[in-house]
Specification:
A hairpin with a 4-residue loop joins strand 6 and strand 7. This protein is an alpha/beta fold and about 325 residues long. It is globular. It has a five-stranded mixed β-sheet with strand order 3-2-1-4-5, with helices on both faces. A five-stranded mixed β-sheet has the order 8-7-6-9-10, with helices on both faces. It is built from ten helices and ten strands.
Length: about 325
């Protein structure tokens, strides 16, 4: 029985997971309304909200699960990566509970949590490949076994989610921009020619900065000519470019590494266009199981942290009372 705590960005979350797979509770307090007027997450504001919410959220998770602290086998908490002030709130809450009740402490990598969110709906089959797509990360991670992470491709500049938010601001869409771009794209047609950054031959790395700039230039050039571009067509064209690169590189890597399973992970995993494209692409590889988590497990939550924490707990990994927050924590060295 593992209590998970997640405060890496702008969601204060706590969850209780049984045997690494059964969700007994999964409570998330979102801060979107507070950050919306600033057009993005304000780190200091996020930290203050975490301080206000953390005790309430943990108590609610335990109450909803019907599990007292005395029955917990461990407390898993995100130690990084993320916003340092936000991470510290969760880390210190977890350390306080672990110390006061003599419960093992389990530090968890945030991206490992996103990957293990898939274990809450399907058993992992190794070797596997995880496509991690979020606001701060776009990575292809190869796993030979539990707890083994090899990054075979990553973004060289903007992450996909970051590009979505920047394009959304250009189109004057509300924060967070990703879901708005996704909805708008479903109303339009990808008729605008935008670049695909394939990079050098054989590379599994990603780059979305040039695409973002191309969208901005397309809009500015049209305005200078007194022309109007349909926002839904521009959104559809932008999304088509992002999705094609993500899908094709994932498909190629799945073939090369001969994996049994491909997992989609991260906040952008909620994107309808990406989910649909991956399902269509992997029809040609019936021997590879494609696992896509439900929407509630795509965005930041604590169930995923507890799921990853369960595996670490079983491997005998423990944190000490000097555990700190590591905003730049590398998953390969985790």
């Amino acid at each position: 029985m593992i209590l998970g705590i997640e405060t890496s960005c702008d969601e204060t979350a706590a969850a209780v997971i049984k045997n690494g797979k059964e969700i007994l509770s999964n409570v998330v307090a979102s801060q979107i309304e507070s950050h919306k007027r600033f057009g993005g997450v304000v780190p200091e504001l996020a930290s203050r909200h975490h301080v206000e919410q953390i005790t309430i959220v943990i108590e609610e998770a335990l109450r909803e699960a019907g599990v007292p602290l005395t029955e917990l086998d461990g407390i898993a908490v995100t130690e990084g990566p993320g916003l340092v002030g936000a991470l510290l709130v969760g880390v210190n809450a977890a350390k306080a509970l672990a110390f006061a009740h003599n419960i093992p402490l389990i530090p968890v990598h945030h991206i490992a949590g996103h990957i293990y969110a898939n274990r809450l709906i399907a058993e992992l089959k190794f070797p596997l490949l995880a496509l991690v797509v979020s606001g701060g990360h776009t990575e292809l991670v190869y796993m030979e076994k539990h707890g083994s992470f090899q990054v075979i491709g990553e973004t060289l500049d903007d992450a996909a989610g970051e590009a979505y938010d920047k394009v959304a601001r250009t189109l004057k869409l509300p924060y967070p921009g990703g879901p708005h771009i996704d909805r708008l794209a479903q109303e339009g047609n990808p008729v605008i020619d935008l670049p695909r950054a394939w990079l050098e031959e054989g590379s599994y790395d990603f780059s979305f900065s040039g695409l973002k700039s191309a969208v901005i230039n397309t809009l500015h050039n049209a305005e200078q000519r007194g022309e109007t571009i349909a926002r839904e067509d521009l959104a559809a064209s932008f999304q088509a470019s992002v999705v094609e690169v993500l899908t094709q590189k994932t498909l190629r890597a799945a073939k090369e590494f001969q994996v049994h399973q491909v997992l989609l992970a991260g906040g952008v995993a909620a994107n309808h266009g990406l989910r649909t494209a991956l399902q269509e692409a992997f029809c040609i590889l019936p021997e590879v199981e494609l696992v896509i988590p439900p929407l509630k497990l795509c965005t930041d939550n604590a169930a995923m942290i507890a799921a990853a924490g369960t595996v670490l707990f079983e491997q005998g990994k423990r944190g000490k009372m000097d555990l700190n927050a590591y905003p730049g924590l590398d998953i390969e060295s985790f």
